[in-house]
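#dry-run=false #mode=assembly
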Amino acid sequence: MSDATVHVAQLSKSFDVPEREAGLRASAKSLIRRRTRKVKAVDEISFDIAPGEVVGFLGPNGAGKTTTLKMLSGLLYPTGGDATVLDHVPSKRERDFLRRITLVMGNRNQLQWDLPALDSFELNRAIYRIPREDFLAMRDELIDLLEVGDLVRKPVRQLSLGERMKVEIVGSLLHRPQVLFLDEPTIGLDVTMQKRIRSFVAEYNERYGATVLLTSHYMADVEALCERVIVIHHGSILFDGRLAELASTFTAHKTIEVALENGRADLSAYGEITQRDGDVVTLRVPKAETARVTARLLAEHEVLDLNVEDPPIEDVIELVFAQERPQS
Amino acid sequence: MSVRPASTEFPVELHEAGRVRSLSGLYLATMRMAVQTQIQYRAANYFYMFGMIAEPVIYLVVWTTIADQQGGSVQGLTAGYFAAYYIVWTLVRNMNVVFGAPYWEHRIREGELNRDLLRPVLPLHYDIAYFAGWKFVVILFWIPLAVGLSLVFEPTLDPRAFEILVFAVAIWGAYLLRTMLQESLGMLCFWTTRGAAIFDLYMTTELLLSGRLVPLPLMPDWVQDIAQFLPFQYAFFFPIESLVGDLSNAELLRGLAAQLLWILIGLAIFRLAWRHAIKRYSAVGG
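#status=ok
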């Protein structure tokens, strides 16, 4: 038994991928000898997630995020290593395990297309064996939280992508899962809808103490919800720690945004000018130089405003993904 | 909408009904949903039904013509028998339309299996329940068509009460039997993406050895001998013959027992294949 809700140790997953050159000749050759290549989608990753924690799982396309989520939710058998979720081995797919988790994948339709979502919810009630009283209370609460009261009575095919996603989330949480695996839950949604889903996840986590592992390409999702992030690339973990530490670990620079009385002053001697917007200049300076440059700016210019910040998280992530080797 | 907050105690222990009770709840909910969905598709269902009836009507016209040319019967089977056989055929065929093996490929490729695997219930239960629910819509739509065909072709049909009872059980037996065979065959999709040739071979074999193409007594003896050791006739010929033919009570019961045996064999094959298949699943398609 582990204290962690999610425990992952040396978890790996490889796929045998058939491959051949283009053309008729290669096609004929493949009739006789089929060539495959082993692709390591996830390569001996390890991490723990505590009960109630919300963790962002970041990585570029093909990094191994979704494969990991699928292994943790019992869809995929690992090739190696161990994983437990709520003290269950996911690949055993025990009923008690499946009743306590959910995996929400953006753009996936789990609802009956031609019927109102309320009918699909009824089916979920039967599948998850939720007593009617609990079901009605939870259903109405989720409908209220996501503001989908009018939508659940329309046939699903008549809902927009964003509306459907919200209704999908209601369906996925009716059994009140303790662990939420959210794979790009806001993909393709407009900013308002993204915000609504973000705040809903935060509310659900707060209200039920649920553990959440979230992947998203929208850093706004991660910044709003996750104090801790795990960065995965080429199947290996590059970083596991507080989001705030990500920048300091991976960037050797800071950003100084300075507004001067004399907006036309040449600041190129202080650092690399990355942006000039009217009187406001943005400088990129080496981290070790930050204090000295700041002091010089204040001493040598009429400064109206000055901010020292880590680079935007998107830039940091881009930098992380550009790296090939894991860092400690 | 008034909101009654759900319990915020966590972890929440949801009550669970007994296995049988909760499974029956799942079956009822799924069947209800299937009925609702298929009523939405009522026009498509009728067109589908009309299309399906073309096949037995062709067989019926051919055999009736042959019977008439041979003095009223073919190997002792009268035109009235053929009419009854193929009209009952239409119901049996509709009953044994199941979640077909090729759809496993679609289910895997489109990522639908991901949804199914996240549910704490074997997808087989959902398939059985969904198609069983659909049958109630099918039967409702079939009745007027059967009446129309009966007026045109004048079947000879005079079943005993016991035969009607056995038929009522046998059409569901046929449904379950064919479900098990198709679902087991569908497991091939976990090993190959080119199962279509095998599925076609299966369908051809079934067509010849099940009584779908012609009543089995019209087939050569050696074909009938082979058919005895295979499950196909219990999904077509036996249910039809239980109502149309003149089987003794012992033969009727033996037929039901054979259906049950093949259902259990099919289930065992499915479960064995499923255990291995799921380990091979690569969860593509989302």
